[in-house]
Amino acid sequence: MPLVAGIDSSTQSCKVVVRDARTGALLRSGRAPHPDGTEVDPAAWVAALERAVADAGGLADVGAVAVGGQQHGMVLLDGRGEVVRPALLWNDTRSAQAAADLTEELGAATWADLTGSVPVAAFTVTKLRWTTQHDAASADRAQAVCLPHDYLTRSLRGGGLTTDRGDASGTGYWSPVQGAYLPDLLRQAFGRDLEVPAVLGPVEPAGEVSPRWGAAPGAVLAPGTGDNMAAALGLGARPGDVVVSLGTSGTAFAVSDTPTHDVSGAVAGFADATGRYLPLVCTLNAAQVLDATARLLGVDHEGLAGLALSAPPGAEGVVLLPYLAGERTPNRPAATGQVAGLTVANSTPANLARAAVEGMLCGLADAVDALVGLGVPVERVLLIGGAARNRAVVDIAPRLFARPVLVAEPGEYVADGAARQAAATWLGGIEWPEASGRWVEGAPTPHVRAAYADLREATAP
Questions:
Q1: C-alpha span between 318 and 313 (Å, rounded)
Q2: Is a pLDDT exceeding 90 seen at residue 58?
Q3: Do 285 and 317 contact (CB within 8 A), yes or no?
Q4: What would the DSSP string read from start to end of 64-109?
Q5: Is the pTM of this model over 0.85?
Q6: Closest to 322 measured CA to CA, from 279, 292, 278, 294
Q7: How many angstroms separate the CA atoms of 325 and 292, rounded?
Q8: CA-to-CA dists, residue 80 to 9, 156, 159, 191, 403, angstroms
């Protein structure tokens, strides 16, 4: 039985799945935590991968491996390939001003036309500019820049820098349409050239896994990709699907046959891992909104769901704007959460719980609307992530998205997508099943969306 391993190196942890390369059947898995913070020594990712591989039973019987890694970020290397400074992760917002400066220097339309996206603090290009301004010593030493997934792929191979079109499209200096780096944009941010990873095709091998990892002799190393691109692969998403992921942060991304260019910056015009495109909207607030509300009300997540479902749609006028960690879409890094509409009559735990779930989902429904506004076909919603297990979320989501929602079975879809890519790179055409789950529908509640929009606009800076 040929086996493959898929790796999900996320912000919080590293997960490894080992699957049958021909059928996709899960055989075993492992995981290990990452350190907290938005600035991390990349050596911690390698150490976590070693522990997760051991927890998954090792790689001795595995014939191909791929990495799905957290998008964006910045890993700087010197001329010997050594890490120059701790990596800045996607959720490090110190480069927000750098993003604004870069956008102003060239204009949002130019950035959108060239890269499909307008710079935001998450993108690598903005972190390069921040480094030149705030860590000149590291900037002077740097000779190469890569992404978290690129760094782990290098570690698995034992040297060399490669990436794929999906992850490269989140740097801010690679064009999904041209399929090429844009050195002028990198120089605009950093002031000089840096070595960048070679961009591999969707199933172009990155080499072989180094013997130090204990894989089968000659084990193939697939190109890997960014986490959102890998999740789309793991779900078997196709054009017409939009994936809404409810992790700590939230994302809505669609598989599209055509690229997007959003001058507003709301939609990032990424490439995917198959040769198509993956327009994506990211919010900074998803599951953590439910976590915070549950703490405030003194209940667990099941208690929060019960309270929310006992309140009517619209929470009797209570509206929650869920910008607890600032916000990326819309771009309000200094924003805070807001609760509006409270009266003596409606100030109940049930209404606050309902408003929290509705506010979180309204932010993601706005994201889906932004995709539709760019002409991306959206026929069905695939719901994943930890918060998708909350029964109030399951009930309310189709009412706010106004479309059928597939609540996917809990799974490690990023690691699964990496495993699927590894199998395709190794064996060629494969036929793995699409994600399973249950379909839910509900009567649309446009008045909830309208009340949320009113509060969002009333609090705009």
A1: 10
A2: yes
A3: no
A4: EEEEEE-SS-BEEE-TTS-B-SPEEPTT-GGGHHHHHHHHHHH-HH
A5: yes
A6: 292
A7: 11
A8: 24, 17, 11, 21, 52
Secondary structure class of 285 (helix, strand, coil): coil
* Mean pLDDT in residue range 426-454: 93
Pair type for strands 180-181 and 174-175: antiparallel
Give the tokens for residue 434: 């699409």
Please give the distance of CA 371 from its chain centroid, rounded to a whole number: 16
Q: Is 184 tagged catalytic?
A: no
Q: Which helix (H) or strand (E) holds 302?
A: helix 301-310
Paired with 67 in beta bridges are 7
Mean of pLDDT values over 7-20? 96
Degrees to nearest 5, angle at CA 162 with 230 and 219: 75
CA dihedral (48, 151, 208, 26) in degrees, to 10, reads 40
Question: What is the C-alpha to C-alpha distance for residues 185 and 112, in angstroms, rounded to an integer?
Answer: 12
| 244 in Cβ contact with 426 (< 8 Å) | no
Instruction: Provide the pLDDT for residue 412.
Output: 93
Alpha helices (runs of H) in 92-182, residue ranges in sequence order: 96-106, 108-115, 124-134, 136-141, 148-157, 165-168
| Whether 65 contacts 209, CB under 8 Å | yes
Which of 207, 274, 196 has its CA nearest to residue 239? Answer: 274
CA atoms within 13 A of residue 16's CA, in its CB half-sphere = 27
Give me 67's structure tokens.
Answer: 């990495």
DSSP per-residue letters across 38-53: SEE-THHHHHHHHHHH
From the list 8, 164, 167, 227, the catalytic residue is 227
